[in-house]
Amino acid sequence: MPKAPLAGARVLITRSPERSLPLVEALRKAGADALLLPLIDFERAPDQHSLDVACDALAAGAFDWLVVSSATTVHVLAAKAAERGLALARWIPAATRIAAVGAATRRLLEAHGVAVALAPEEDQSAAGLLSVWPDGGGKVLLPQADIASPRLAEGLSGAGGSVTAVMAYRTVDYPAAAERRLAIPAEDGAGENQPPSYALLTPATAAAELAAGRIDAVIAASPSAARRFHELFPLGRCRFVAIGRPTADQASALGLPVAATAARPTPAGLVAAVAAALQPEQDAGGKPP
Fold this sequence. Notes:
- The protein is of the alpha/beta class.
- It is 37% helix and 19% strand.
- It contains eleven helices and eleven strands.
- The chain has helices at residues 21-29, 48-59, 71-83, 88-91, 103-111, 126-132, 151-158, 203-211, 223-232, 245-253, 267-283; strands spanning 10-13, 33-36, 40-44, 65-68, 97-100, 139-145, 162-173, 199-200, 217-220, 239-243, 258-262.
- The strands form two sheets. A six-stranded parallel β-sheet has the order 8-2-1-9-10-11, with helices on both faces. A five-stranded mixed β-sheet has the order 3-7-6-4-5.
- Mean pLDDT is 91; it is low at 282-289.
């Protein structure tokens, strides 16, 4: 029987449980122990009036394009549609074209029945979308996180678009205030009736485990998670695995050596990235350090 590719590895995931279950299960099947340490969380935008005005204008057909740059934005838009008694696909006018950044964003939009008209093929970033953006572009709605870089809005405007950028949610340190926390449905796909088991660590416990060299790899899903990890912990002998080029670039800018970047932000793609990050140690024989 072939050895599991991650047999004996302990992998730290810096996301909340509801966004990690398929990955936890994939790591378990690959032989790894999954440890969860949520570092960032999301709150509703404080200015709900401006968001509602933009959403109502979207529903009324005021925009030629809706640009969605994160899966969290999809959750916000779906919640706004539900507040109005509609499914997301029925709420967005058929004439409004959808552009998406990120494979997870696209998958979630399509799961809601929303067709994506434009997305970068390789570089899943603002630069990637701008590289395929058509000249002009008409009126564009761009709902984003509070910490989103202005690069995408500026690039769309520079290409001739009339851009309405609005805050869709706030990114905060975990945990968000209960009364403001953005409700994120649990990701499915774990493949079992019962959710997979995992260990939920506190920052103090994670720091001790990292210092003792008992965590082999850490997975960061966003630039903000990379920044938060860098603020809290030394990497030590642990291998840093990034989801997406923007996360890898942010880690590198912080001085965190990136051992692997997931080519695909899927559970299988992340397992492959962790395996690649740990390959030198596994080739040397035995368990990852």
